[in-house]
Design a protein that fits this description.
Elements (H helix, E strand, L loop, with lengths): L13 H26 L6 H30 L11 H7 L13 H4 L4 H29 L5 H29 L3 H15 L5 H72 L1
Amino acid sequence: MFKNPFSFEGRIRRLEFGITFIICGTLGTFFGYLIEVFKNSSIEEAQNIIYLIYSFSLINLWVMLAQGAKREHDLGYNGLWQLIPFRYLWLIFLKGEPNSNKYGDSPKMTNNPNNIDQLKHSIDKNSQNEFDNKLNLLEQSFKAGLIDEQDYNTKKNYLNSEKRKAQHIHENNKNKASISEHTQAQLNSLKELLDNGILTQDEFETKKDYILKNEIKKSDNSKDHNTDYKNKEKENTNIDKVDSINYKNNKIDYSIAKMDEIIANLKKHQNDK
């Protein structure tokens, strides 16, 4: 919120525009009051102060127009629409477009704390810290003699097990959410075409859905390939085990046959004597 209030580019939400409207409206009224006061003042520097107030008023007006333009962009309109009388009242209450448009991504997504990836990282970090805090508290309780060793080991094993489960779930979600560099490049190219007016919003959404579906298919095929590879590895391992067993059996059979041959030769030699 209020990342670049002087810029006419991008989109903002109703809340940010409403706060801007209140602040700029209040400042505008205050500056107008000061100008009237100094116009009727006998102070020698009154004229210079009035010029200074006019300068601040222009900055205030610039911010209001910039924020109004971005609010119009959020609705999918040109920034000049804000010049319509009483239009600002509509801008406070009208809901913006939920998806990306030619003016940029939805502020509902970009205004989340440090974007979605960092938010997920923050949630995961907090989850891990929670387990670590519980383990530390458990260890302190054991050292203080509040719980016996058996109870301590049981609870410790349980917490470590839950921690590993949480890490496993996080890794799975991370893998599911990952997008290849090629797919990301395609999406960036599509966005550029949308921004330049070559694609309409509907065409952009259709092509984006197609690209993402292909990415999901590739991911599924990759998983299937990995599964097949693991199965083949398992089969090869089993075959190697069978071959090893057969080799050992053949070696044993050979040894037994050799022993039989030696015994037969000994008997024959004794008979000859």
